[in-house]
Specification:
Strand content: 5-15%
CATH class of the largest domain: Alpha Beta
CATH superfamily of the largest domain: Kinesin motor domain
Distance between the termini: 128 Å
Bound molecules: adenosine-5'-triphosphate
Shape: rod-shaped
Number of helices: 18
Radius of gyration: 56 Å
Low-confidence stretches: 1-65, 150-166, 276-280, 350-360, 652-660, 797-803
Length: 803
C-alpha cells in the first residue's frame, strides 16, 4: 500500500465525481452514477471516501505519495485524447469513403448512360450501314450484270463497256462506299472508346481495392498501437502494484478492450464494404449511419473518461501537495531536532552531576537523531525512486508522443491521398464527360451529314425552281414598271422582294435571273427529264399568276421552245444513243382541265368531256377512257402534235393577259423501254403541266363566266395546295381526288416520284401581292418530301406492266 492512505478527497470533489458516466450505456442515467456499486469507478470513488476518513492516521504513518499514478493517468488521458482524435479522423475518412462511393455510383451511372447512347448510335449507324450495304450490293449486282454482259440496263453501249454506269451513278456509289468506310471507322473508334472506358472502370476498381487495403493497414497500425498501450498499462500496473490503482487500471484496460472491439467491428464493416461493392446504397448508408452513431457513442464515452481522468489528476495533485507539506514538516522537525542536538552538544557540563544527567539524556536524543536520520534516508531513497520512475514515464510518454505523431502523420498522408484521389477522380470524370460529349457530338454531326447526303441522293423532294419574268415591252407600255424583286448573282437559291416596306427573302432550290434563257432553264431539269427513260415518273409543272410566263417556260415560242419540246428532243436523243440495246416506245397525250372539265386536246372532238377512272386491268393505275394516246415516231412528229394541242387549247382574254390560257394543260409522255437481250421492260412517265393563272379573283376583274373560270382555277390550285400540305405532313390520306388536276397528277405527285415546280413570278411592283403568294406557296412546297424515287422495271413475263 503505497499511496491509498494519502488520498484526501474533499466533499466537493467527491460530489463532482457523481456527474461522471461510468460506461457507454450510461449516457443519460444520472441515477446510475455514484450509487452503482458494481461500477469500477464507483468502487474507486468509494475507496477514496474511505481514504478521506482515515487520512490523518495514514499521514501519521508517513506513507509516501505516489506520483507514478498521476503520470499514468496523465499518460492515459493523453492517449485517450489522441485516440479520440484518431476516431474523428477515421470518421472523416469514412465520410470521404462514402463521398467516393457516391461519386463512383454517379460515374458508373454516367458511363452506363453514355454506353446506352453509344449503343443506340451504333444501332442507328448499323442500320444506316445496312441500308447502304443493301444499296451497294444492288449496285454491285447491277454492275456485275453489266460486266458479264447479261441483263445490262444500257444495252445500247457496245460490249465491252468501260463505264457502263453513268458518271452520276458511279459518283453515288463511290460516295456510298466512302460513307460506309467512314461509318465503319467511326464504329471502330467508338468500340475502342468503349474498351478504354471498360479498362478505366477496371482500373478504378483496383484503385478502390488498394484504398481498402490501405485502410486495413491503417486499422492494423491502430490496433497494434492499442496493444502497445495495453502492454504499457500492464507494465505500469505491475510497477505500481497498488490495489485501487490496479482496479482503476483494470477498468481502463476493460475500456480499452471495448474500444478495441469497436475498432475491430469497424474494421469488419470496412472489410464487408470493400468486399461487397455491389451492395445497395441504402444498406451502405444505413451502415454508415450505425457506424457514425457508434463513433459518437465512443466519443462521448471517451469524453467522459477524459473528464474522469482530469478529476483524478486534480485529486492526485492535492495528494501530492499534502505529501510535500508533510515532508516539509518532517524536515522542519528533523532540523529542529538537529539544532536542539547541536545546541545540547555545544553546552559545557557545569558540574559532574549535570554531566551525568547529560550522559543519561544523550542516548535518547541520539536515538531520536538516528531515527530521524533513518527516516530522512528513507525519504531520500523514496524521492530518488520517484525521480527514476518519473524519468522512466517521461521516456514512455515521449515514445507515445512519437507514435502518436507517426499516426497523425499517416492520417494526414492518408487524407491528402484521399483528397488527391478525389481530385483525380473528378478530373477523370470531367475529362471522360467532355470526351464523351465530344464523341457523341461528332457522331451526331457525322450522322446528320450522312443523312443529308443520303436524303439528297435517295429522296425525291419536290424541287422548286423560281423564274423571274423580265420586264417586257408590253409591261413598259402599260405604265409603271417599278420592280420589287431582286435576285442575288452570288447565291442562286435566294430571291428577295420588297413587301410593305421591308425585304422578304425566300430560299428555294434554284432562282433564275430574269435574263435566264430557255436553254438554261431546261439544263437544270434535263437529267430529271431523261430519267423517265430508266422507268421513273417525273412531273414538272409551272405555277404562277396570269402573265408571269408559265406558258412561255413550258411551251415557249416556235423560235425559242420551252421545256415540252426540249424534253422530247432530249428523250429522242437519249433513245438514239441506246439504239440496238434497248428499244423504246414513246406515246403522248395532251389534256386540259377547264372549269373542272377534262378535255382531250389531241382529239378530233376536243369538246368531248372525259372521265378519270381506275384502270380495269387491276393495276390500280388511273385510266382516262377515250383519251387519245399518240405514239411519237420522231421529234418532227411531236412538233405537229403540240401545235394541234395548242390550237385546241381554250384561250380567253382577261384584264391581266390578252392571250391568257385559263385552263391547266397536261402533256403526258410515256416512255416504255425493252431490253433487247433480256426483254426486261421499264416504263416511265413524264408529266409536263402548264397550270392556269393563280391570281386572285378580285384582281382579275372577272365577272360571269370569267368569274366561274377564276373560281375553278383557284379551287383546283387550292386542292393542289392541300395535296402538297398532306404530303408534307406525311398524312396517310392525301386528298388527290378533290380536283381533276390533283387526281390526274396522283401518280406523279405521290410517293416515289420526282417532281419539279417552276414558280413563275413577276418582278413588277403592281404584282407584289400575287408574287408574295406565289413565293409563299413555293416555300411550302420546297419542304415536301416524296420519299425515295422508285423505278418501274419489270422482268420478262411479269403481268404487272405499268400503263
Ligand atoms: N422569260 C421571258 N422572257 C420573255 N418574255 C416572257 C418571259 N416570260 C413570259 N414572257 C412573255 O410574257 C407574256 C405572258 O407570258 P405567258 O403567257 O407565258 O404567261 P402565263 O403565266 O402562261 O399566263 P396565263 O396564266 O394567263 O396563261 C408572253 O407574251 C410571254 O412571251
Amino acid at each position: 500500500m503505497v499511496y491509498s492512505s494519502s488520498l484526501v478527497v474533499s466533499a466537493g470533489s467527491s460530489s463532482d465525481s457523481e456527474g461522471l458516466c461510468l460506461s457507454e450505456e450510461d449516457d443519460d442515467g444520472d441515477e446510475h452514477l455514484l450509487g452503482d456499486a458494481t461500477s469500477p469507478l464507483a468502487e474507486f470513488l468509494s475507496f477514496k471516501q474511505e481514504a478521506v476518513g482515515g487520512r490523518h492516521k495514514e499521514a501519521l504513518h508517513g506513507k509516501a505519495m505516489d506520483s507514478p499514478l498521476l503520470s499514468v493517468m496523465s499518460h492515459l488521458l493523453t492517449f485517450l485524447e489522441r485516440y479520440s482524435h484518431m476516431q474523428r479522423l477515421q470518421q472523416r475518412a469514412q465520410e470521404y469513403r462514402s463521398q467516393l462511393r457516391v461519386l463512383e455510383t454517379q460515374r458508373r451511372k454516367r458511363i452506363k448512360e453514355l454506353r446506352a447512347t453509344y449503343r443506340q448510335k451504333l444501332r442507328d449507324k448499323m442500320s444506316v450501314i445496312g441500308n447502304l450495304e443493301g444499296v451497294i450490293s444492288e449496285q454491285q449486282s447491277l454492275l456485275e450484270k453489266i460486266q458479264t454482259g447479261g441483263g445490262s440496263l444500257y444495252p445500247l453501249y457496245p460490249v465491252p463497256v468501260l463505264s457502263p454506269l453513268s458518271p452520276h451513278a458511279q459518283g453515288g456509289i463511290h460516295q456510298l462506299v466512302e460513307s460506309i468506310s467512314s461509318l465503319q471507322q467511326e464504329r471502330n473508334t467508338l468500340l475502342d472508346e468503349l474498351a478504354s472506358l471498360r479498362q478505366e472502370v477496371e482500373q478504378r476498381g483496383s484503385e478502390k481495392q488498394k484504398l481498402a487495403s490501405d485502410f486495413q493497414q491503417q486499422i492494423q497500425d491502430l490496433k497494434q498501437s492499442i496493444e502497445e498501450r495495453e502492454d504499457e498499462l500492464i507494465r505500469l500496473r505491475t510497477e505500481t502494484g497498488v490495489t485501487d490503482s490496479e482496479k482503476r487500471i483494470l477498468h481502463l484496460t476493460a475500456e480499452n478492450e471495448s474500444l478495441k472491439q469497436s475498432l475491430s467491428v469497424t474494421q469488419r464493416l470496412l472489410q464487408q464494404l470493400s468486399s461487397i461493392p455491389s451492395q445497395s446504397n441504402t444498406a451502405l448508408i444505413k451502415e454508415n449511419e450505425s457506424l457514425r452513431t457508434r463513433v459518437l457513442q465512443l466519443e462521448t464515452s471517451l469524453h467522459l473518461r477524459a473528464e474522469q481522468l482530469s478529476q483524478l489528476e486534480r485529486e492526485n495533485e492535492q495528494t501530492e501537495w499534502r505529501k510535500r507539506e508533510e515532508l516539509r514538516r518532517l524536515d522542519d522537525r528533523i532540523q529542529g531536532l538537529q539544532l536542539e542536538l547541536e545546541k545540547e552538544k555545544g553546552k559545557e557540563p557545569e558540574i559532574q552531576y549535570i554531566s551525568k544527567t547529560v550522559e543519561v539524556e544523550s542516548p535518547g536524543t541520539l536515538r531520536s537523531l538516528v531515527k530521524a536520520e533513518e527516516r530522512n534516508k528513507q525519504f531520500a531513497e523514496q524521492l530518488s525512486d520517484q525521480s527514476k520512475r518519473c524519468s522512466h514515464l517521461e521516456e514512455q510518454l515521449r515514445g507515445s508522443e512519437e507514435i502518436a505523431a507517426g499516426l497523425r502523420h499517416k492520417i494526414v498522408e492518408y487524407e491528402s491521398e484521399i483528397g488527391k484521389l478525389r481530385e483525380d477522380l473528378l478530373k477523370e470524370i470531367t475529362h471522360l464527360e467532355a470526351t464523351k460529349d465530344e464523341a457523341v457530338k461528332e457522331a451526331a454531326e457525322c450522322s446528320e451529314q450522312h443523312l443529308d447526303q443520303l436524303r439528297e441522293q435517295f429522296t425525291g423532294n419536290i424541287r422548286v425552281l423560281c423564274r423571274v419574268k423580265p420586264v417586257t415591252a408590253e409591261d413598259q407600255q402599260e405604265g409603271s414598271h417599278a420592280t420589287v424583286v431582286t435576285t442575288d448573282l452570288d447565291n442562286d437559291s435566294v430571291v428577295t422582294m420588297l413587301h410593305k416596306g421591308r425585304d422578304r427573302t425566300f430560299e428555294l432550290d434554284k432562282v433564275f435571273q430574269p435574263q435566264a434563257t430557255q436553254e438554261e432553264v431546261f439544263q437544270e431539269i434535263e437529267s430529271l427529264v431523261t430519267s423517265c427513260i430508266d422507268g421513273y415518273n417525273v412531273c414538272i409543272f409551272a405555277y404562277g399568276q396570269t402573265g408571269s410566263g408559265k406558258t412561255y417556260t413550258m411551251e415557249g415560242s416556235v423560235e425559242n421552245p420551252g421545256i415540252n419540246q426540249r424534253a422530247l428532243k432530249a428523250l429522242f436523243s437519249e433513245i438514239e444513243d441506246r439504239k440496238g440495246i434497248w428499244s423504246y416506245l414513246i406515246t403522248v397525250s395532251l389534256v386540259e382541265i377547264y372549269n373542272e372539265v377534262l378535255r382531250d386536246l389531241l382529239s378530233k372532238d376536243p369538246s368531248e368531256k372525259l372521265e378519270i377512272k381506275i384502270n380495269p386491268d387491276g393495276s390500280g393505275q388511273l385510266h382516262v377512257p377515250g383519251l387519245r394516246v399518240i405514239e411519237v415516231k420522231s421529234f418532227q412528229h411531236i412538233k405537229k402534235i403540240l401545235a394541234l394541242g395548242r390550237r385546241n387549247r381554250i384561250t380567253h382574254g382577261t384584264k391581266m393577259n390578252q392571250h391568257s390560257s385559263r385552263s391547266h394543260a397536261l402533256l403526258t409522255i410515256t416512255v416504255t423501254g425493252t431490253d433487247l437481250t433480256s426483254e426486261a421492260r421499264t416504263t416511265g412517265k413524264l408529266n409536263l403541266v402548264d397550270l392556269a393563272g393563280s391570281e386572285r379573283v378580285w384582281k382579275s376583274g372577272a365577272e360571269g363566266d370569267r368569274l366561274k373560270e377564276a373560281q375553278n382555277i383557284n379551287r383546283s390550285l387550292l386542292a393542289l395546295g392541300d395535296v402538297i400540305q398532306a404530303l408534307r405532313a406525311k398524312q396517310t390520306h392525301v386528298p388527290f381526288r378533290n380536283s381533276r388536276l390533283t387526281y390526274l397528277l396522283q401518280d406523279s405527285l405521290g410517293k416515289g416520284n420526282k417532281t419539279v415546280m417552276v414558280v413563275q413570278i413577276s418582278s413588277l411592283e403592281s404584282n407584289v401581292g400575287e408574287t408574295m403568294c406565289s413565293l409563299k406557296f413555293a416555300q411550302r412546297v420546297c419542304k415536301v418530301e416524296l420519299g425515295p424515287a422508285s423505278r418501274k422495271i419489270e422482268s420478262p413475263g411479269s403481268s404487272d406492266f405499268f400503263s
